[in-house]
Write a structure and sequence with these properties.
By secondary structure, this protein is of the alpha/beta class. It has two domains: 273 residues, Rossmann fold, CATH 3.40.50.880; 241 residues, 3-Layer(aba) Sandwich (Rossmann fold), CATH 3.40.50.880. It has 18 helices and 27 strands. Strand 26 and strand 27 form a beta hairpin. Helix 2 packs across helix 3. The longest helix is centred in the first third of the chain and has 20 residues.
Length: 564
């Protein structure tokens, strides 16, 4: 149970926090400064796109091609007589099988009618040939909506070397001038360079091009490789490495990373996988003011309460306290926000069953993977308009950032707190409450800092970085790394089954484990921990960064129990 002395301190909190509020000039209401239009609406590629840049041997990719083409309808458009495409065409024809359909069309020029027809019924459409002419690009542009619908149905589009660079947002010729023309943007916010040799001067030229087109990602693809885009992820096959680049800005150096080809031993590993949405967000982030700011807002909750749980189960009695803070069983209007990658979410998940057992009748679940819905759908937004409590579920916090950051739903979530309600969450639902978003990389869960997602927290409290499963997953060194990079932030690490209750600037610790506070405004002593770890029954002031109550039990007398 929540200890009685801690609960009693909650009753004294208002007096304490009033003193703080009136004595600290820089503690002000949290502002809504997140801009919807800054961030991607299209978060993934629906279906699959393959860029064939002269991969010589597709035999190693037989399982992949079979998963794409088996029993399906494949239409290949190719410039007749080009032997460089024999490998792909042959491999696809073999992969179709007896129950599928393979059709090859040799074209002197692309035909709008033929392409439109194929896109309406085929499962796989291949466009391959020599460097396209200006008329080819005009033809492809006329079919932009048909390509979108084709991919929306989950189908596969394959472009080879000659046509690959039209898939991005901007089309640039092989020689890479800084001037470009609009592409199909089927690989969103990207510039593809399909004659990239990986040398330093090639990287420099690609950086120069991307710098002329802000908020785009440069992708350098050497000959002899193929790229596979599915959803928001990219892998590659062949010999060489694919290079991703972002130009530097006033506060950040250029970002250059090379991705190794996928192999049976490297499937799904970070070095063989790219999350395109993360790179797109980083490209945007580089056009905005530096984040976190050198002097972030002081951690302070003007109205309402935050309940921040480190995952692995909640402290005993916490959910009862949450409902009380939301107005009690009779008056509480609760909203549960799952944190899942799937489009649909189960109805009886998270705290919902517990709320029902308590007798709460006004319960809603909101979940979407579509930012437009979170910004414009009034029916979807309705539960948030009069909610008294919101709970964010566990999972991967980038899901919450993608769906809600900067939307009308996000604004309504903040208003719940401003009305005096309560916002809570566990694991990912804990980290998302901060303005700075820790451990949000979509590739694995091992990096505490994720370019493009650091500016992704929902910002119910500013000036802090929150991590969870802290001791159980040995994350102390990760937080030290983050504090070294951003010493202006207050780091907070929560053990499992452990929580802090935050009102104004006061954080009360409850649960089985400890909460770790990292304060770089104080010098780190040699050979000493760079944190303060507080157990249950402790209190910490986030604004002044001081321990109010240390609940650590006194050390037992070493002579206790010994015989004379």
């Amino acid at each position: 149970m929540i200890t009685s002395n801690l609960l009693s301190r909650w009753g004294m909190l208002s007096v304490f926090t009033l003193i703080i509020a009136f004595s600290t000039d820089d503690l002000a209401a949290q502002q809504f400064d997140e801009v919807y239009s800054d961030w991607p609406v299209q978060l993934k590629i629906n279906g699959r796109i393959i860029v064939d840049n002269g991969l010589a041997d597709w035999s190693d990719s037989k399982p992949l091609l079979e998963s794409i083409a088996r029993d399906n309808s494949v239409v290949c458009f190719s410039r007749g007589g080009d032997e460089s495409h024999t490998s792909l065409s042959t491999a696809l024809k073999q992969a179709v099988g007896d129950e599928g359909h393979f059709e090859s069309k040799s074209l002197a020029a692309l035909s709008v009618m033929d392409l439109k027809d194929a896109l309406s019924w085929a499962s796989v459409v291949v466009i391959q040939g020599a460097q396209p002419e200006k008329t080819d690009l005009a033809t492809l542009r006329k079919l932009k909506s048909h390509f979108d619908e084709f991919l929306e149905r989950g189908q596969t589009l394959i472009f080879d070397t000659g046509f690959a660079h039209v898939l991005g947002k901007v089309v640039v010729p092989t020689e890479l001038p800084t001037e470009g023309i609009a592409g199909l943007n089927l690989i969103p916010d990207s510039i593809l360079h399909s004659s990239f040799d990986g040398q330093k001067d090639a990287t420099t030229r690609l950086l120069d091009v991307v710098s002329q087109h802000p908020r785009t990602v440069g992708i350098g693809v050497p000959r002899g490789m193929a790229l596979l885009f599915s959803g928001r992820k990219m892998t590659c096959r062949g010999s060489g490495e694919v290079t991703f680049v972002l130009p530097g800005c006033d506060h950040l150096p250029p970002r250059i990373e090379s991705i190794k080809p996928e192999s049976p031993r490297r499937i799904g590993t970070p070095e063989a996988l790219v999350d395109l949405t993360e790179w797109r967000r980083d490209a945007i982030d580089r056009t905005l003011k530096p984040f976190p700011p050198a002097e972030p807002e002081t951690p302070f909750v003007e109205n309402g309460t935050l309940v921040i749980v480190g995952g692995g189960g909640s402290p005993t009695g916490l959910m009862t306290k949450f409902v009380e803070l939301a107005g009690g069983v009779e008056k509480a209007r609760l909203v549960y926000v799952p944190c899942v990658e799937e489009v649909d979410a189960s109805a009886d998940v998270g705290p919902v069953p517990a709320w029902k057992r308590m007798g709460v009748s006004k319960i809603s679940i909101i979940h979407t993977k579509y930012r437009q819905r979170a910004n414009t759908d009034d029916k979807f937004l309705e539960p948030l308009t009069d909610a008294t409590g919101i709970w964010f579920g566990g999972g991967r916090q980038w899901n919450l950032a993608d769906s809600y950051y900067g939307t009308k739903a996000h604004r309504l979530m903040k208003e719940v707190l401003h009305r005096g309600g309560v916002v809570g969450g566990s694991s990912a639902g804990a980290s998302i409450q901060a303005r700075y978003l820790a451990r949000a990389t979509p590739i694995g869960n091992f990096r505490i800092m994720a370019p493009g997602y650091e500016r992704g927290g929902l910002g119910f409290i500013s000036g802090v970085a929150i991590d969870q499963h802290f001791s159980q997953r040995g994350r102390q060194k990760d937080m030290t790394q983050l504090m070294t990079r951003y010493p202006q932030l207050l780091g907070i690490g929560l053990d499992e089954a452990t929580a802090i209750i935050v009102q104004k600037s006061k954080a009360d610790v409850i649960g089985k484990g400890r909460v770790f506070f990292y304060d770089r405004k104080r010098p780190v002593e040699p050979d000493q921990p760079d944190y303060i770890a507080l157990p249950a029954d402790s209190s910490y002031d986030l604004a002044s960064r001081t321990v109010l109550v240390d609940g650590t039990p006194p050390e037992k007398d070493k002579t206790e129990g010994k015989s004379e």
